[in-house]
Structure formats: C-alpha cells, structure tokens
Specification:
Helix content: 25-40%
Order of helices and strands: EHEHEHEHHEHH
Mean pLDDT: 93
Number of helices: 7
CATH class: Alpha Beta
Radius of gyration: 17 Å
CATH superfamily: HUPs
Shape: globular
Number of strands: 5
Distance between the termini: 44 Å
CATH topology: Rossmann fold
Number of domains: 1
Structural class: alpha/beta
Length: about 230
C-alpha cells in the first residue's frame, strides 16, 4: 500500500480526509499538531479517531504558536460567538491562526519525506468555512509547487501531491462523504471554545458551521453541546 501523511486534528474535516484516504487505498501516517490551541481537547479526539481507524503510525508534534499569538485560538483574544450561522461575517475572523496551514503542511511534507510518501492529505475547505486565506485551492497548488522545490525528494524527481478532497464541498457534502467512508462523527470535535468537560459551545463559527452541515445533510448531529446553546 502507498503511504499518505494525513494531517489529523480530530475535527470533522480532517477525520473525513482520513476516512477518504483509507477508502482510496492509502496506508495513513497521521500527524497531529499540539500548537498551544485553546481547544486542545481535539488532540484527545485525534488519538481516538486514529485508533478507531486502525492507524498504526500516529505522531503528535508540539510547537508553541502561543509565543507568536495573533489569534483567538492561541492568544488572549475572545472567540467570536453568534446565535445563528447567518450572523457570520465575510472577513477573516480572529480565529485565523497566522500561517498555520503553511506550518502544518511543512511538517507534513517533512514527515512524508521521512516515511517515503509523496502524498499529503489536508482537510481544508473553501465553501462552508470561516474565510481563512490558507484554505483556498490556490494556496494548496502553490504549496505543491513549493514541495517540489524545497525537498531532497523533489529535487530527485518525486512529485508531491497535496490532496484537499473537501476543498469544493459544502459541510453537508463532507458529512455524507465521511459517512460513506465509515467515519463516526461522534468521535470528532470542532468547537473553538469548549467547556472544561469538552462539550461544544454551540455558538462559535466552527460549531455553527458543523451544526448547519448536519442539518442540511439530514443526519442527526452527535455533538454534545453545552446546555443553553442555540438549537
């Protein structure tokens, strides 16, 4: 089996990517990043998800993006809350982490070289998403070009492919694709500002987009939300 490095956060999108990579016949090498995010419960979910999918090689890399800050996920900045998905703004929200996907893909590329893989999966989405610039297809294609120039394997002729299979899909379409690939979404976590027990707040951008996806897919939402969150 060909190996593929799958960036796995424990969230809905990255878990769907893992299921799709396995369905396509890849042997996944999962990479999770502990970067000082306030929603660190996702790392626990990533371990659970990897185990549930029979992943034999799951690595967790630690780096401190809190020392850089600039994001509501890594700094003392409030996570925006809304009562309905229609209230989400059109600009880049404060939950954007500067250069996060560039950093993550760089680490995934390094791991791919080490394990002899030329395939990397990332769960970026450019339809039902929060406006992050590093989720766009043009960013993924540019990174693919960079991979060929910046690596020993690339210089020696390897062609790296960054798979972003969810890029043009709505959340509802992602959920349906994940279910078809055997994903159990009750194991995943998406909330940016969870309660101490891990329950989702139900009001951050990520929670609202996740809830909207399940509603439009016509599938019960298995997420545990805090009491009193929008229904």
């Amino acid at each position: 089996m060909k190996r593929a490095v799958v960036l796995l956060s424990g969230g809905l999108d990255s878990t769907t990517c893992l299921g799709m990579a396995i369905a396509q016949g890849f042997e996944p090498v999962c990479l999770s990043i502990s970067y000082g995010q306030r929603h660190s419960v996702e790392l626990e979910r990533a371990r659970t998800v990897a185990k549930a999918h029979g992943v034999k090689d799951h690595r967790v890399v630690s780096l401190d993006l809190r020392s850089i800050g600039g994001s509501a996920l890594t700094d003392d900045i409030a996570v925006p809350k809304h009562d309905d998905v229609s209230q989400l703004g059109s600009g880049i929200p404060p939950t954007y982490v500067p250069a996060r996907n560039t950093i993550f893909l760089g680490l995934a590329l390094a791991l791919a070289e080490v394990v002899g893989s030329s395939d990397v999966f990332i769960g970026v989405n450019a339809v039902d998403y929060s406006g992050y610039p590093d989720c766009r297809p043009e960013f993924i294609r540019a990174f693919e070009q960079l991979a060929g120039l910046a690596t020993k394997a690339g210089v020696e002729g390897a062609k790296f492919t960054v798979h972003a299979p969810l890029s043009g899909m709505t959340k509802a379409q992602i959920i349906k694709a994940g279910l078809a690939a055997g994903v159990d979404y009750s194991l995943t976590h998406s909330c940016y500002d969870p309660a101490p027990n891990g329950d989702a707040c139900g009001r951050c951008d990520s929670c609202l987009l996740r809830r909207k996806g399940f509603e439009e897919a016509g599938v019960p939402d298995p997420t545990r939300y805090v009491k009193g969150s929008p229904s």
